[in-house]
Sequence to fold (279 residues):
Amino acid sequence: MIVSARNISYWIAQRPILHKLSFNIQPGELTVVLGQNGAGKSTFLKMLSGESKPTMGQVLLNNKDLHKIPVKQLATMRAVLSQHYASALPFNCEEIVMMGRYPYFGTKPGMDDHRIVKECMDEMQVVHLTGRNYQALSGGEQQRVQMARVLAQLRSAKNSDAHWRNEKQQGLLLLDEPTSSMDVLHQQVALSKAKELSVLGYTVVVILHDLNLAAQFADTILLLKQGCLVASGGVRNVLTSENLSNAYNLELDILESDEYDFPILVPARHKNRTVLLRS
Ligand SMILES: Nc1ncnc2c1ncn2[C@@H]1O[C@H](COP(=O)(O)OP(=O)(O)OP(=O)(O)O)[C@@H](O)[C@H]1O
Fold:
């Protein structure tokens, strides 16, 4: 699914939050959105999910206006993991993952729904949390359960696992800082899963703060600053010292090693001190 932003601007109380963003996000790619706190990343994701409507401009999914797609149909086309998910009710973990299947069944989940929930919980290594109260989980455990929920939402019930893997898939996965509370192993598990989905044909958009995870997993990066797109393209085109010091007010050294096919970023040191630039 091609996601196109056409000249999107968004204002809240006469304050510009996003300013004339235009680009296409390609299927089969993992696109990472970067930028400092308050740059507009979550707001931008809400435009792509349909949760908010641009003040000006349009978001198109496969050339169709996102806001003209019926809600139920949209729920089977795109899944969203938000930054702050709070459940007011004491659902257990399996029930949270089953929420991803709501668009597919009427009153009761079928056998396929239960199978898919199990598969996705297994993929995110949360089977041992089945039956546990979601509210009582740690932050990272909650994120892993949420990740299982969005995987369950995008998986088509009529396909067997093998068929699902062999067919080119359509669908949009939007993840807002999905790994911010995860340990280093589960960061790799979650982002490898997101990458695998992109290889299967899904359009995957992930907001990250960790530049090294972005360098490792991104096919394309969108770099935002104060609601504007200041750079976009491949990892080495966007993650330059110049772009990053402009976006983050921090000087970074960009290291290359024969061992890795992506750059490694570390805060630059000058006379043994990190170089912080003025904002
Ligand atoms: N409902 C709202 N009312 C007023 N201002 C808002 C609202 N939502 C977002 N903003 C403002 O819009 C700007 C962008 O917010 P957004 O959450 O998109 O940033 P972000 O890049 O995701 O930041 P972070 O990295 O800290 O999560 C911020 O200055 C924020 O205060």
Remarks:
- The longest helix spans residues 139-154.
- Residues 12 and 119 are 41 Å apart (CA to CA).
- The pocket of adenosine-5'-triphosphate is lined by residues 12, 17, 35, 37-43 (CB under 6 Å).
- The longest strand covers residues 15-25.
